[in-house]
Amino acid sequence: MQPVWRESHWRLSTFSGLLLAAYFVPVWAVAAWRIVLSPIHGLFERPNVAVAIFISEHLQTPALTTVRLAWLLALGKLTVVAFFLVFAALMLRRAVRRGRGGDEALGIALTLGCAISFASMAFAAKVGEAAALQLHATELMLLLGTAILMLVDQPPAATLSSGDAGLPEAGYSLSSPSS
Fold first, then answer.
1. Are 54 and 126 in contact (CB under 8 A)?
2. Number of separate domains in the chain
3. Where do runs of H (alpha helix) occur along 1-102?
4. Distance (Å, whole) CA 137 – CA 140
5. Cα Rg, the chain, nearest whole Å
6. Residue numbers of the domain that contains 141
C-alpha cells in the first residue's frame, strides 16, 4: 500500500509552483497595475525602480518611449501572472494533476518570469540599486529553483513485465505485409 501523499498525486514541483503562484500573482499584478494606472510613477516604484533608472538614465529615452517600455514591462508581468493563474486553476483538478497537465503553464510562467527577473537584476546591478538587486536576485533564485525541481521531479517510470526484457510494447506485429 502506498502512502497517502503518493495517492493524491501532489508532487513537490506542483506544490512549489503553487507557492510561487501565491507570491508572484499578487506582487507582480499590483506592480503591473500601478504601471497601467500611472506609467511613469508606477515604473519608479520600488519593484521596478532599477528598470526605470536604467531606461531613463542609461538609455536616455524620451518620456513617451519610457511609457511604452513601462507598458511592455507591465504586459510581461501580467503574462507571467496569467500563466501562474492558469497553472493554479489546473492544479485544482485531480485528473489534471495526475497527468501533469499544468506543467506547460508553469514552465511558461517560469521562463518568462526568469527572463524578466534576470533583466531586472542586471539593470539593478548596472545602476547600483542594492535593494532592487537583492529583490530581483531572490525572485530569480525562486523561479530557477522551481524550474530545476520540475526537471528533477519526474513521475516514476511505468513498470514493465519481466517477459519484455526492458523493451516497451510497440503495438504492431512483424507479419508479412502481403497477408
1. yes
2. 1
3. 4-7, 12-37, 39-43, 49-53, 63-90, 94-98
4. 5
5. 22
6. 8-153
pTM over 0.70: yes
Give domain status of residue 57, yes or no. yes
Helix residue ranges per DSSP H, 91-129: 94-98, 103-127
104 vs 174: which has the higher pLDDT: 104
The string of pLDDT tens digits covering residues 98-115 is 666 778 999 999 999 999
The residue written with cell numbers 508581468 in the block is 77
Q: Over the stretch 45-61, which tens digit does the pLDDT of each residue have?
A: 999 999 999 999 999 99
Distance of CA 148 to the CA centre of its chain: 11
**Nine cell digits for residue 160:** 514493465
CA distance 53 to 124: 9
Nearest 5°: the CA angle 158, 163, 169 is: 55
Residue of 169, 14, 49, 67 lying closest to 121 (CA atoms): 49
Average pLDDT over residues 112-122: 97
The pLDDT score that the predictor gives to residue 161 is 47
**Residue 167 domain-assigned (yes or no):** no
Q: Would you say residue 159 lies in a domain? A: no
Task: Tell me how many degrees the CA angle 43-47-88 measures, rounded to the nearest 5.
Answer: 110
